[in-house]
Specification:
The complex is a heterodimer of chains A (114) and B (116).
Chain A lengths: L3 E4 L2 E4 L5 E7 L5 E7 L5 E7 L6 E2 L7 E2 L9 E3 L8 E8 L9 E2 L3 E5 L1
Chain B lengths: L3 E2 L4 E5 L4 E3 L2 E2 L6 E8 L6 E7 L7 E2 L2 E6 L4 E6 L8 E9 L8 E2 L3 E6 L1
Parallel strand pairs in B: 2-12
Antiparallel strand pairs in B: 1-4, 3-9, 5-6, 5-10, 7-8, 8-9, 10-11, 10-12
The chains are: A mainly beta (114), B mainly beta (116).
Chain lengths: 114, 116
């Protein structure tokens, strides 16, 4: 059973606000990921990290930023939210040491920007 | 170019019947992994099953099995004896070392509805 947590689960916010989506995992996994998913659509990778102080951009361009100061924590920040940022954001983690790197996902944050 | 193709946007299946969800993929890598995830309406992604490109046997996990046909580049998910709780979105995903960003590439998903 995966132990990966995301808060908040739902967020409704006005345009221009700064928001941080939290993601934490207690499995000691090295790699963490953020995916964006529009309703009824596939997931797209927007950020990933190999470990502390490592952050990389994913295939889908995003105005969000991430940080990885602690192994277990991988927050995503939007400096100025816009309606185009309305989506679901899913965090995942996996262990480099595993032969098969299965990604385990958190419950997601559904963001609505008005 | 899209790497994962799921051609069934939606499926209706009677309870207790078996169901096959189609997935084809495209990669030039020899080493890759294929995953299936289930996403209920609550939104979380639940890992179901994995098939490695070098695995000689089809993967099985309980009621889930993966029909892996490497030459045809297909990795169909088979759910035996479907249950009402199987109603969800199902995503096929691939991990390879194809030079792009790390992480999984997902298909567009199949919305499966199990009818009583």
């Amino acid at each position: 059973e995966a132990d990966i947590y995301q808060t908040p689960r739902y967020l409704v916010i006005g345009t221009g606000k700064k928001i941080t989506l939290e993601c934490s995992q207690t499995m000691g996994h090295d790699k963490m990921y953020w995916y964006q998913q529009d309703p009824g659509m596939e997931l797209h990778l927007i950020h990933y990290s190999y470990g502390v102080n490592s952050t990389e951009k994913g295939d889908l361009s995003s105005e969000s930023t991430v940080s990885r100061i602690r192994t277990e924590h991988f927050p995503l920040t939007l400096e100025s939210a816009r309606p185009s940022h309305t989506s679901q954001y899913l965090c995942a983690s996996s262990a480099i040491r595993e032969v098969r790197e299965t990604q385990y996902f958190g419950p997601g944050t559904r963001l609505l920007v008005l | 170019a899209q790497k994962i193709t799921q051609t069934q946007p939606g499926m209706f299946v009677q309870e207790k019947e078996a169901v096959t969800l189609d997935c084809t993929y495209d990669t030039s890598d020899q080493s890759y992994g294929l995953f299936w995830y289930k996403q209920p309406s609550s939104g979380e992604m639940i890992f179901l099953i994995y098939q490695g490109s070098y695995d000689e046997q089809n993967a099985t996990e309980g009621r889930y099995s993966l029909n892996f046909q490497k030459a045809r580049k297909s990795a169909n998910l088979v759910i035996s004896a479907s249950q009402l709780g199987d109603s969800a979105m199902y995503f096929c995903a691939m991990e390879d070392s194809g030079g792009g960003a790390d992480g999984l590439t997902f298909g567009k998903g199949t919305h499966l509805i199990i009818q009583p």
